[in-house]
Amino acid sequence: MEHLTPLLLANGTDVLTWFASGADEVSAHRRYLNLINVFPVADGDTGTNLSTTLRAMVSVPSQTPSFGRTLKQLSRRAMENARGNSGIIFASYVNGLALEGEAYERVGIREFAKVASGAVRHLYSAVEHPQEGTLMSIIRDWAAFLSHNCERYRSFQELFEGAYHAATVSLEKTRTQLSVLRRNNVVDSGAAGFVRFLEGINRVITGGRIAVVPDNEAVRPLAADDAPSEYRYCTEALVEASRDITADEIKGLLHPLGDSLIVSLQDRRLKAHIHTNAPEQVMERLLTVGALLEQKADDMHLQNRLRAVTGGVGLVTDSIADLPDEYLLQHGISVLPMGVLARDTAFLDKVTIRLPQLFRAMEDPDAYPTSSQPEPGRIRALLAARLETFDSLIVLSVASPLSGTYQALRQAAAELATPQKPITVLDTHVNSGAQGLLVYRAAELAAQGLPHAQIVREIENRIPRTKIYVCLNTLAYAVRGGRVPNTVGQVGMKLGMRPIMTLDAAGHGAAFGVAFSQAGLTRIIFRLVRRAMKRGGIEAYSIVHGDNLPLAMAYRDQLVRLTGREPAFLSEISSAVALHAGPGTVAVCFTTRKGEAS
Questions:
Q1: pTM of the model
Q2: pLDDT higher than 60, residue 474
Q3: 72-81 residue pLDDT tens
Q4: What's the CA dihedral at 317, 320, 322, 326 to 10 degrees?
Q5: Residue range 327-360, pLDDT digits in tens
Q6: Pick from 188, 283, 441, 569: most CB atoms within 10 A?
Q7: Per residue in 234-281, pLDDT tens?
Q8: Is the same domain home to 177 and 248?
Q9: Are strands 586-592 and 466-471 parallel, antiparallel or unpaired?
Q10: Do 105 and 174 lie in a common domain?
Q11: Confidence of residue 2 (pLDDT cuts 50, 70, 90)
């Protein structure tokens, strides 16, 4: 290192350079880190989460050379953008660095070692149940080396190179420290990510003169875990607290709902991470603390199932398509949640808000909930992730006149698709259970191993033969949701009208019929079914409902007698449909055997 000027003092500009180089290195090894990810759950996204977190941290350059203020800015961006267990653990450590280093304009190696070592305490306090042999252990061991050896070295180059090699030794130990790592004979993925981060720092600080640890694990994805976590969703939220609060208070609030609980707190802004089966309850409890700024809930069971998939046709739809969760999981179908704005908070349809929460919000006389299409970033991230698993993707979108989702999906697909990895986005011209029927059939065809083009042709052929008929209890919610003009709705409600809504051939909403009682609605629905049976028969049908299982089951019993077959599925409706249909709604959807549906 004779040609390098020894770095004796580091400021904010140096720190930003280190983090940027570390981010580049983690990103370069992202796929490898995903492949070896088996702890805390085998969801195969540690590399993606850590890379995403680091990229967001350095995406906005710091405007100050101050060591303390730069760390503060990095910490804030880390908290706002941290993803996954590894991302939030890393962000919690950076938060500790910011708290310990806030008084410094620049630091020597002794001051830096003191800051790095002191930050470990903040990291361990953020995690409810720290595990040895993980990312946390490597961070602690690296910081301990800095603290114990800073007197031996003269420059940052010398100290960091020694600490890096100590971290690689610590990383190798993780292979035997946890049973799941021993069983798979891999090092911890988060810990390996931190070593890559250090490698990036050392690469820039030593001018590339450092021996690096190769990606020497198996390059094939590890098998799916036969016994995945009892908790399905990796759930996160960024909260702006309305009062002073402690991390322990948040842990007490969320502890009953799951495990892998991490709470990182900076001033009154906190990031919470938990593995849970009830993301909607997590959000409800956090709302008692303050405003939910951001939220996420990744399906770890789906991610685990997709680990075993290599190639084939992947299916993606939006959450307006109503299908049972079990079917979606069994067939590896990815769902893009629509947004639901309720109580000044943007929730994720069917994930962080369910029908009970939505129906309560719909009773607010001052602020009726609304739906929104997924953000372009969420769409792109989901499609990009699935392209890494499948040879091609077929995306079945809600009717384009009902939402801008179709166009947004087409735009993302155009950016991501290649001749080797095609993406076909289909406008189903329907929604809810009818859209679900098309996804259901596509999944059957994909399971049979049919080629991409043949699946597309068959679904395109079925689209004009697939219909939905929604029986509304009242016009009140269609009026409040904006689907029926207020003047028309007021007259209809006074008369006690109960309309049947459908979609025309282009996917526009249309009134099909009207009754003045539930019995009248039922007669119309079954008249439609009988007519379809006479015209050639019903190939498949489904029943969906808005918290009205008894009526849905009554329809199911009568339809079984009429058609001689069980429904393809029976499911609750999405929040986006419930906003306009209201509670108690039941819809019958079917695909006819030939010709256009009635």
A1: 0.85
A2: yes
A3: 999 999 988 8
A4: 50
A5: 999 999 999 999 999 988 999 999 999 999 999 9
A6: 188
A7: 999 999 999 999 999 999 999 999 999 999 998 889 999 999 999 999
A8: no
A9: antiparallel
A10: yes
A11: very low
Closest of 150, 190, 151 to residue 37, by C-alpha: 190
CA torsion, ordered 517, 520, 524, 526, to nearest 10 deg:
110
Distance in angstroms (rounded) separating the CA atoms of residues 37 and 42: 6
- In the chain, the percentage of residues whose pLDDT exceeds 90 is 69
In this prediction, residue 45 carries a pLDDT of 82
In a 13 Å sphere around the CA of 278, the CA atoms on its Cβ side amount to 13
What is the mean predicted confidence (pLDDT) over 282-288? 97
User: pLDDT tier at 387 (50, 70, 90 boundaries)?
Assistant: very high
Structure tokens at 526: 């079954």
Q: How far apart are CA 568 and CA 583, in angstroms?
A: 23
State the Rg of the chain over Cα.
27
The two three-digit tokens of residue 25, written as one number: 């290195």
9 burial (CB, 10 Å; 0-12 / 13-18 / 19+) is middle
Report the C-alpha gap between 594 and 586 in whole angstroms. Answer: 25
List the single range of 89-93, 151-155, 385-389, 495-499 with lowest mean pLDDT: 495-499
- Spatial distance between the Cα atoms of 406 and 424, rounded to a whole number of angstroms: 11
Extract the tokens encoding 161: 């190179």
- Do 144 and 279 belong to one domain? no
- For 154-193, b/e burial (b = at least 16 CB within 10 A) is ebbbbbbbbbbbbbbebbebbbebbeebeebebbbbbbbb
Q: Which residue has the tokens 């350059």?
A: 61
Is 50 exceeded by the pLDDT of residue 168?
A: yes
44-55 pLDDT, tens per residue? 788 888 999 999
Mean pLDDT along residues 555-575:
94
Burial (CB count within 10 angstroms: exposed 0-12, middle 13-18, buried 19+), residue 107: buried
Residues forming a β-bridge with 542: 569, 589
Task: For CA atoms 142, 148, 149, 151, give the dihedral sign.
Answer: positive
**Structural domains counted in the chain:** 3
If asked whether residues 21 and 154 sit together in one domain, one would say yes
Residue 426 CA to its chain's centroid (Å): 22
Looking at every residue in the chain, the average pLDDT score rounds to 89
Are the beta carbons of 67 and 10 closer than 8 angstroms? yes
CA-CA distances (angstroms) from residue 545 to 551, 562, 565, 575, 587?
Answer: 8, 20, 19, 11, 6
With both helix axes pointing from N to C terminus, report the angle between 67-81 and 12-28 in degrees, rounded to the nearest 10: 30
Q: How far apart are CA 470 and CA 579, in angstroms?
A: 13
Residue 251: domain span: 229-302
**CATH number of the domain to which 293 belongs:** 3.30.70.2730
